[in-house]
Amino acid sequence: MNSDENLIFQKQTVMKIDASAIAHNVQVIRETIGSARLIAVIKENGYGMGLKREYDILKNLNINFFAVTNANEALALRRFGCKEDILLMSPSFEKEEAAELLQNNIIFMLCSMKQAVLLKELADETRLTPRVHLAIETGMGRYGFLWNRIPDLSALPAFLKIEGCYSHLNGKPSGYEKEARRQLERLLTATESLKKQGIDPGIRHICNSAATMSLGSLGLDAVRCGSAIIGKCARGGSRLKNAVWLEAPICMVAELPKGSTIGYQACAVLKRDSRLGLVRAGHGDGIMLGYADNPEPLIHGVIHLTAVKLLKNRYRKTVLVTGHNGKKARVPYVGRSGVAHVMIDLTDTSFAEGDMVQFHVNPLFVHPSIPKEVES
User: Fold this and answer.
1) CA atoms within 13 A of residue 137's CA, in its CB half-sphere
2) What is the pLDDT of residue 315?
3) What pLDDT is attached to residue 4?
4) What pTM value is reported for the model?
5) Which DSSP symbol is given to 308?
6) What is the pLDDT of residues 150-177, one digit of tens each?
7) DSSP category for residue 339
8) What are the φ and ψ backbone dihedral angles of 132, each rounded to 5 degrees?
9) Strand pairing of 131-137 and 145-146?
10) For the chain, first and last CA: distance in Å?
11) H or E segment and range at residue 121
């Protein structure tokens, strides 16, 4: 983004990154997995925090194995001075790109014979030995050799070094643990097939953040954690600390009478004379955006809507406000969030213009122009 674009998209929000919370989360993960190795996943530009920024925090926590999902990120880490292991968790089929990855000692994810042919060609030309982790397809339907149709790979060790073998959990919500263990058994079946071919599968890993925090390492040699490191784990994350949030000031306070409608679609009607705070932040900053991309099943949706109506306080969305005197309190949203504005209820507080509002966000959805600040 050039300087003009930065000016155009300048926001009042700031992304805060708590390095001490990340250190806490790494410690919790290590306690959970015991002797297993932690592979820190810092894909998608460090989960939106900035690749170098997250790497700099994690390298100081003695993490020596990183994973990304595109070649540019892997090569950028090397430019940032990363000497540790880097696993690229997507295949590289372009010869020029793969050659650069090989020259930079990136560990390849090997998922097909087509890719193996390319790596052999590069090994012959460069006299370098590609390092690989074999990807096994156990139920995600994305990358890898089918777990029960492992081809003859016995020729591979002649020109590359197999250092690991892994799969991706699909995270099926119903029967989560049962599905995870089913995929685990498939991975173990595949590794036994490799051993019969005389191939050492190396370190084995299947658990992502949610599985790690709820099931540990499942007895394997390593885990891959990304969201758990920043405290955004979807399952089993009660011991983790939130390490990333957005802050923006209250820009205006308005006194509105009972019966006033608030926000788009007039979906909120004030039940009392109220004192509301306006914050210049919204969907355009990454607020109130989430993962869900499919509607809930009908029965689950009806139950959820009923619960929201009956248990309003439990499901009420709130933000944390910090006053100039250091006093903190949670206050609710009022009405719908817009692209650039939200309203919050200050009626029972003394908060004023300029006081800071803290928003929980998924950093992947935060606008890249928003400045980032690391707190120790």
Assistant:
1) 14
2) 46
3) 59
4) 0.90
5) H
6) 999 999 999 999 999 999 999 998 999 9
7) S
8) -140, 155
9) parallel
10) 28
11) helix 113-126
